[in-house]
Design a protein that fits this description.
heterotrimer, A mainly beta (238), B alpha+beta (368), C alpha/beta (501), A: 238 residues, Pectate Lyase C-like, 2 helices, C: 501 residues, alpha/beta, Alpha-Beta Plaits, 2 domains, 8-stranded parallel beta sheet, 3-stranded mixed beta sheet, 29% helix, 16% strand
Chain lengths: 238, 368, 501
């Protein structure tokens, strides 16, 4: 089913998507919000620039965007997959609990903020370019992977990477690993780590038609919470 | 309570277009851009600033005024006549729009300071004009100057921005730069002066966010002759930039380093010279630091700056196509008027993006 | 005529079932309250001598001791309190001026307790300070009036010397002599570890403490004790003490009996000689003379040290501060009427001056009205009791605060207000070696570090709630404050709205 966003009232596209009983292709999308929110099955393909809160509460199925996405993509998503052939705005995958988000290029501030894992749900964000500040802030579970493609000569994350992180892992492919606080551990990835991200890396390459070999030659780093030195507030009772 | 008596925090949308080649851009384009972000406003304020729109009067200050009634107009015009040579005056052309009600009297004056008055004041011309504007706005009941620069103009009202654009017939104006604002105040609507942009001389500000440093910033700038009558963030931000650039002579980029200063932990990791420069700016102008979320567009003669707060708590996307620079709260607001872009990027928090007319690249933006 | 003032202020209650006659209380009490009675085979107390310092209570291994206030059962009278009656008796007995120490204990309005803080909801995000960047670094000193550029157009840093604090809390001036060397050492070590400053007070700088110079403010008071060129250059800044909140208009007097050994050497006066600090500086009888002293100090230190001027909060404080701001001072310390002292006439301590909240607000407002707030930084003191007081003071307009009583409490002081006796059982306000050794400087420093660290955490929590992540955006941010139970005049002086407005 093909939906031309230009022929629909601006605020009706989301509803039209929800009511569709089959896979949908949306053309000429520009700023329409809340698309595929709570979607649980099927495949939505969007051409253009969807508005904020794309795929929020996503519960299954797949959303593919041929273009850039804005803020709060995959907010609180539970399952399914979002694939972005472009860049992503701020707060990508806020509080996501499951499913995966693949962004071909860079992401804005606070990507993966408050990402968590639960039972068999292991959320995943793969960012092909670089990420803004506060990547994985408050991360409590799941995996964030930044490939730094095109940024091999410099940092792939901005300031305050992983602050408040207390679970999960951030993987960075970079020649310039960031400075992290005492509450985090930063180390170069070992063979066992690499095995854990083999599949997401391969998926990324397949999705965006990138040769896997082109990623060779740059080390991966792993950031995890420092369990020996967690964030702690001292309290005294009165 | 009216706006100006109580502080009204607000959320918003912003958009801007700038032709570096100085090509005239029709006002209709910026209206279409901001209209796309309708949901980020709530109909309680919208506005635009256009630069290069009055080429035939480019050497005169263009005053746009709201009057509550004819008495206010009479009194204010008497004041203007005492201080300025009024080259031209007219009602600002508007059309009836369903969503725009309770319009005040809206007048435009092209003026130059009376030479003997200017000489007597012992002020430079821009300070003289600024002082007159601040005096009208803080002392003259029912009169409000909402635009006072040369070859630029602010158009604003209570309503959705697209309604405001239609009301002011912006398709009849062309300029090399436009900024726009859709307002989402979290309080009862005030009056038209409270809408954005907020402007003094040729400097205009549109702003998305609510700053937590408001009263620190307000009490700081009020030391230097400014009066924050509206109690809005935008007003104080405009005055901060006016103070830092026009009165202190900071470059607009340096002013951005002041209001969105990097954290000390970031400053300490920089090379010594840059570290010293940023430490100095942060220490010397500590009360001008703005905390809390903001994305702002600062228009000035021949240039435009886009700036996010240092934590980038508001969204903002920049783009380029040919000689045109675009910036907006959402990328779709750019795509809707320019689907094919050469480059799209999100500037970092605290990282000022400044564009200038190619003809004016060399000219310092800061003048006394 | 019997002595009318015959009411021991306190009762020493000893549980005989718990007391083991270990005599720890006797050892700990420098006032000689406790002794073992051979006759009864039990410990007895001379309650007349008890000052309620709680030293014996703290050291009683079996928790057998309790001190209670011994309220004389005068016929009730709302006008004549028992304290007032007893004071009359004391003065009629002796003809003496009533003398007290520490701050005014009276029940006057504490404005801090009538001010509430704001927090963000929806329109502005609050911040978790434990995990997100949150800055308390504070610079004290002048702001440049104009920027300057070099021949390349680059900004030439033209800041004059100032002080940089990691957190906006300093330790107030307390002299060596009024407090012990160990107390000073604890303050110095804590200031160094915390990245802030302690203040020598007017008693000079002990030779062992020059190493803490980078974290020391050296004071120049009217008596000029221990002031010499090396001293002036030893600290990070120099404070001219014009007044003290507990005793505005009053000088100081450290009796000759306390001028012994190192105190004598540090003050550079002979042993046994009274250390009299004149009420005014006798080289300052007017504001232009203050400029002269500031300039002479700058001259003696090559202009490298910022100059603080400490004044008591008095009625025309705003005009005085304005004059000081125009006299070349870099920082003004304003000390409120509840501030502490080692000894002051009670009539002065309890009746002269105004509360710090009102004084601070009035000064900050005035300096802004005159456009000269950037000429000076403001330190508020007298009395700051908690992190909330710190936040409120800064939002009212202070750049930083300084704490004296709170710091002494952290060192073990129990506010018995008997400093003037020199028998401080906690080793703080005494020079008796057997008492001063009770205060371990390292342990004391650790307690001070704990206190300031905890307060700093709390300050960050309160800032985070307001959505402010840098202390400079809190300074003077009065919109973050609301009054509770204050009248129009009080609100107007404080420059804040009432809660609900």
């Amino acid at each position: 089913m093909l939906l031309d966003a230009n022929t629909l009232p601006f605020d009706r596209l989301g509803q039209a998507l929800n009511e569709a009983k089959e896979d949908v292709i949306v053309k000429n999308c520009c700023g329409q919000r809340y698309l595929a929110d709570g979607l649980s099955s099927g495949h939505v393909q969007i051409y253009g620039t969807p508005g904020n809160a794309l795929g929020a509460y996503l519960d299954g199925g797949e959303v593919t965007v041929f273009g850039n996405v804005q803020e709060a993509v995959g907010d609180t998503m539970n399952a399914g997959r979002i694939v972005v052939h472009g860049i992503a705005g701020d707060a990508l995958g806020y509080a996501m609990r499951g499913g995966s988000i693949f962004v071909r290029d860079s992401a804005g501030y606070r990507a993966g903020i408050h990402m968590k894992a639960y039972a068999d749900k292991q959320p995943l964000i793969v960012i092909g370019g670089r990420a803004g500040s506060f990547l994985g802030e408050y991360q409590a579970g799941g995996v964030i992977l930044v490939l730094g493609r095109g940024f091999e000569g410099g940092p792939v994350v901005n300031h305050f990477c992983g602050v408040g992180m207390h679970g999960g892992a951030i993987y960075l492919r970079t020649n310039c690993p960031p400075v992290v606080g005492d509450q985090l551990l930063l180390r170069q990835a070992e063979a066992t780590d690499m095995r854990l991200i083999e599949r997401p890396v391969a998926d990324y390459c397949a999705l965006f038609d990138v040769a896997c070999e082109s990623l060779a030659g740059v080390p991966f780093w792993v950031i995890t919470p420092n369990t020996a030195n967690p964030y702690k507030q001292l309290y005294t009772f009165c | 309570m009216l706006e100006g008596q109580v502080r009204i925090p607000s959320g918003c949308a912003i958009s801007g277009i700038f032709s570096k080649a100085g090509r005239p851009i029709n006002g209709e384009r910026i209206v279409r851009s901001i209209a796309l972000m309708h949901d980020r406003s709530n109909g309680l304020g919208g506005g635009f600033a256009g630069y290069g729109i009055y080429p035939e009067y480019k050497n005169d200050y263009a005053f746009h005024l709201f009057y509550e009634d004819a008495t206010a107009k009479k009194d204010c015009e008497a004041f203007l006549e005492r201080h300025f040579d009024i080259v031209n005056l007219s009602k600002i052309p508007t059309r009836q729009v369903a969503g725009i009600v309770d319009a005040p009297l809206i007048w435009r004056y092209f003026v130059t300071p009376l030479p003997h008055k200017l000489a007597d004041s012992q002020l430079n011309e821009r300070e003289y004009v600024a002082k007159c504007v601040i005096r009208i706005n803080s002392e003259m009941q029912g009169a409000y100057v909402f635009s006072s620069g040369k070859n630029m103009g602010v158009f604003k009202a209570v309503g959705y921005p697209e309604e405001v654009g239609e009301f002011y017939r912006l398709e009849e104006y062309e300029g090399y730069c436009w900024t726009a604002h859709g307002r989402y105040p979290t309080n009862t609507p005030g009056w038209w002066g409270g809408a954005h942009p907020f402007a003094l001389l040729d400097l205009s500000v549109v702003h998305n966010g609510e700053i937590s440093s408001y009263d620190t910033n307000r009490r700081f700038v009020e030391m230097f002759g400014y009066k924050c009558n509206l109690l809005t963030d935008t007003e104080v931000i405009a005055y901060l930039f006016d103070y830092l650039t026009r009165k202190q002579g900071l470059r607009i980029e340096e002013a951005a380093n002041v209001v969105a200063a990097p954290f000390w932990s970031t400053i300490e990791r920089l090379a010594p010279k840059e570290r010293e420069r940023l430490s100095y700016l942060r220490t010397a102008f500590s009360s001008a630091l703005i905390t809390g979320p903001f994305s702002i567009l600062v228009g000035f003669e021949g240039g435009l700056m886009a700036l996010n707060d240092r934590l980038k708590l508001r969204s903002m996307v920049a783009a380029e196509k040919g000689d045109c620079f675009y910036v907006a709260s959402e990328e779709s607001a750019i795509r809707t008027i320019e689907p094919e872009l050469d480059r799209v990027w999100a500037p970092r928090g605290g990282e000022a993006v400044v564009v200038r007319l190619e003809t004016q690249k060399e000219e310092a933006v800061c003048r006394g | 005529m019997p002595r009318l003032n015959d009411y021991p202020a306190y009762q020493v209650l000893r549980d005989p079932a718990k007391c083991t006659n270990c005599r720890a209380c006797e050892v700990q009490c420098a006032n000689g309250v406790h002794r073992f009675s051979e006759k009864t085979g039990a410990m007895v107390a001379d309650e007349d001598k008890c000052v309620n310092c709680h030293r014996c209570v703290a050291f009683c291994p079996t928790r057998a001791l309790r001190i209670e206030r011994n309220e004389p059962a005068f016929r009730s009278n709302a006008n004549w309190s028992s304290d007032q009656i007893l004071n009359i008796y004391r003065q009629a007995d002796t003809g003496g001026v009533l003398l007290s120490s520490m701050g005014n204990p009276g029940g006057g309005k504490v404005y801090f307790d009538h001010i509430l803080l704001n927090a963000s909801q929806v329109t502005n995000p609050s911040i978790d300070p434990l995990r997100e960047p949150m800055e308390t670094r504070t610079h004290l000193g002048k702001k440049p009036n104009r920027i300057e550029r070099d021949e390349n157009g680059d900004i030439r840093p033209n800041l004059t010397p100032g002080l940089t604090l990691s957190t906006p809390i300093l330790f107030s001036a307390m002299s060596y002599g009024s407090i012990s060397l160990n107390a000073h050492k604890a303050l110095a070590e804590a200031a160094q570890a915390l990245g802030t400053y302690y203040n020598t007070g007017e008693g000079g700088l002990h030779k062992d403490f020059y190493e803490y110079g980078e974290h020391t403010i050296v004071q120049v008071a009217s008596g000029r004790f221990g002031v010499h060129k090396g001293y002036l250059n030893a600290g990070a800044a120099i404070e001219i003490k014009m007044g003290q909140g507990a005793k505005p208009g009053i000088g100081g007097h450290l009796p000759g009996s306390k001028i012994v050994g190192d105190v004598s050497r540090t003050r550079m006066i002979p042993e046994g000689s009274d250390a009299i600090s004149p009420a005014p500086h006798h080289d300052i009888y007017s504001i232009e003379d203050l400029r002269q002293l500031i300039d002479s100090l700058k001259s003696a230190t090559g202009g490298k040290k910022p100059i603080l001027v400490k004044i008591a909060a008095v009625h025309n404080i705003a005009a005085i501060a304005s004059g000081i701001a125009r006299s070349g001072a870099d920082i003004i310390t304003i000390d409120g009427y509840r501030g502490g002292t080692g000894a002051a006439p009670t009539c002065i301590r309890d009746n002269v001056g105004i509360p710090i909240e009102l004084a601070l607000a009035a000064v900050d407002t005035r300096l802004r009205e005159e456009g000269i707030r950037g000429e000076v930084s403001l330190i508020a003191s007298g009395s700051i009791r908690s992190s909330a007081d710190v936040v409120k003071a800064i939002a009212l307009g202070a750049d930083a605060v300084s704490i004296g009583t709170a710091a002494l409490l952290a060192l073990g002081c129990h506010l018995c207000r008997s400093c003037q006796t020199g028998n401080c059982n906690w080793g703080i306000a005494t020079q008796r070696p057997e008492l001063t050794k009770r205060l371990d400087p390292a342990a004391g420093a650790q307690r001070l570090i704990h206190l300031i660290t905890a307060w700093t955490h709390e300050i960050k929590e309160m800032m985070g709630g307001m959505g402010i992540n840098s202390i400079e955006a809190l300074c003077g941010n009065r919109l973050m404050l609301r009054g509770l139970g204050l009248n129009e005049t009080e609100l107007s002086v404080l420059g804040i709205k009432h809660a609900g407005q």
